[in-house]
Design brief:
single chain, 73 residues, mainly alpha, 4 helices
């Protein structure tokens, strides 16, 4: 779902049994998109609720991951 979810904590489907299109258009993804559009943070996963990347401009700046070298986004 998100490039920040490196541990795979937010599961939105199973590509062993679904196509990417089915996962992307599935109920879980639709609910998350709706929550984002309606700014309903309570319906989003914790990783989204606690996200500070847009506020920090992280999408356009390099960032560091623990024990990794500099990663460019």
């Amino acid at each position: 779902m998100c490039c920040v979810d490196t541990d795979g904590t937010v599961l939105t489907g199973d590509l062993n049994h679904q196509s990417i299109e089915q996962v992307w258009q599935g109920n879980v993804q639709e609910n998350y998109r709706s929550a984002f559009i309606n700014k309903n943070k309570d319906l989003l996963p914790n990783i989204c609720q606690d996200c500070t990347y847009p506020k920090k401009g992280q999408w356009i700046k390099p960032f560091y991951w623990k024990d990794w070298d500099l990663i460019e986004c």
